[in-house]
Amino acid sequence: MKKTLLFLIAIVLLTGCDKDDATYYPQMKNFAYLYQFEALPGNVKTTHQTLFTADGQQIFEVNVDFDRNGCPTHVKSVRKQAEVIDVTRDGDQLKGSENGQDVVVTLDKNCAMVKKVTPTMTVDIAYNKQGLVEQISSPASDAAFHLAYNSAGEMAVLSITQAGTEVSRATAVRAEDKKKISDVVTTVKRNDQIKTVSNVCKYKHDVPYYCDIISVDAAGNVIDKQYGNIEVTYY
User: What does DSSP assign to residue 21?
Assistant: First the structure.
C-alpha cells in the first residue's frame, strides 16, 4: 500500500454508495470500495466512470462489467499517474495486471474478495457480520485500513493506521434525502490538517450520472474542484 494513496483512498472509499432504500448487488459496495468506483443500485451490467479536474483534464477512468449475479467479470481502471489495473474473472479468481505486476484476486463462493496477491505483496480483506469490508491489510506493510458502518450499513468512518498508530481518519455525513445516494460530505484529518470534501450529484431515476467534488481546507477556502461522469447499463 503506497503511502501516497492514503489520503486519496480515505476520500474515495467514503464517497457515495449505500443508502438502505436502494437495492444493490450483494458485493457491489465492497467492489466499489476496493476498486474505487461509485456503487450503483439495480441489475447493473456495465459502468463507465470518469473523473476530471476543474479544467477538464481526465485523472481517473474505470470500466466494470458484471454478470447477472452481480459478480465482476472485468475491471479496468487508469489513473493519470499511469497506474493501471486490468483484471478478468477466471472461475473464482480475478486475474490480470496491476501497475505493471501480475495480480490474482481470490473470491469466495459469494464473490467476495478475500485475498489479493502480486509478486511483491499479499493483501488480506476481512469482513464484518454484515458482509461488508471491515479491514484491508498486508503482512508486507505496516499500513491498514479499518472501516466502520452505521446501523443502516452505510460506511461512516475510515481509519488508516501505520504501525498501529492512526495517521488518517475520515468521517462521512450523508444527505438527509435518501434518494440522493451519492451525496456525502467527508471530513479527513491527517497530520493535524483537516480537509472537507463535498460530493454533490445530479440524478436520473435516482441514479447519479454527474457529480461535483469540492474540497475545502479548515478555514473554508476552496483548494480543489473536480467533477465526475457516471454511465451505466442494465440487464
Answer: T
